[in-house]
Fold Branched-chain amino acid ABC transporter substrate-binding protein.
Amino acid sequence: MRKHRLIAVGATLLAATLSMSACGSRAEEGGTTGESSNKVAKIGVIAPLSGDLSALGLGIRNSVNLAIKQANDSNAIPGWTLELAAEDDEAKPDVGKNAATKLAGDDEVVGVVGTLNSSVAQSVQPVLASANIAMVSPANTNPTLTQGADLTAPKRTYPNYFRTCTTDAVQGPFAANYLIGADMKDVATIHDKKAYGQGLVAAFTTALESGGGKIVAAETINPDDKDFSAVINKVKSANPKAVYYGGEYPQAGPLSQQMKAAGLNVPLMGGDGIFDPAFIELAGKSSDGDLATSVGAPTESLPSAKAFVDAYTAGGFSEPYAAYGAYAFDAANAIINGLKVSLKDASDAKSAREATVTAIGGVSFDGATGPVAFDEFGDTKTKVLTVYKVTGGKWVADKTGS
């Protein structure tokens, strides 16, 4: 009899332990502070959570998680508990498409924050659009994602797609004007053939030439290249004052290092895809003087971002919020603001998908990055950018403007 009592007590303790463990796991994935009878709605994340660009993707995921936790803690949507559903796209279009298909098949998913890469977004957009799931990107900058392939006759292709960051149509010219103002008018361009890099260089080239500058060489690399000696030799012979690179830091860092080692001692400038401490680590000490544009003003300098930075720090996340954390936080809150309308009288999450898209189109609030609102294409109405320069082994803000 005593033996049976001990078994019963042990089973009870085990059940209690498992229950507590499960609650802890849910808290890490957005948490739940509401009643257990609450209906569930999920906000997905599609971003690179592994691989070379994971530093950016994890910052996005964590920032969305923070927004979800805050919404649950404040009971922002009475009767509903929000949960995070994060998927790793590995920065690959086919993997991103599979992630989108998985999220679209989950009836509790009502919105998605992502993607990081414009090339991945091209695969994800039609999947989420067919399911009427809102997609808000904190990082996609290719203009065609919102305005279609013919930018001379812009047409919104996917009504469910929005973004909180400004586009290459603004970022490229901002970089070009900076170099012209710094008397670096002869520029060589290099891009990685992906949607983001190609679009960025195209916008930069048009603006530089319109401003009186000259493209002295236009070259490309492959995304998986590691030895850039051939393209460096071609560019070096053109005697540029600067090299403008369209792509991301895993290639940009080594490219900068190899440029300087080969005697091409001019600044490498890129877009927000190279704006990360990892670029400096890869490029080494010779990266001082290299340049990058990034969306918005420096997060740490914005009074509007202080609450986000403080909450993120207090949240105890293992990874930094990185370049897009604040924009991901605002993207998640754009979805949450939409859900306050769409879920109010909804019987289930899936039935609120279309209404959520409509509601997000009309949101207007003060976010971590400043005012958050979208134009008729789904683009952010805020067009602020900053040029950063590598100084003493760190990115330092050099110029902020619109």
Remarks:
- The chain has two domains: 34-166+301-372, 168-295.
- Confidence is low (pLDDT under 50) at residues 1-29, 31-35.
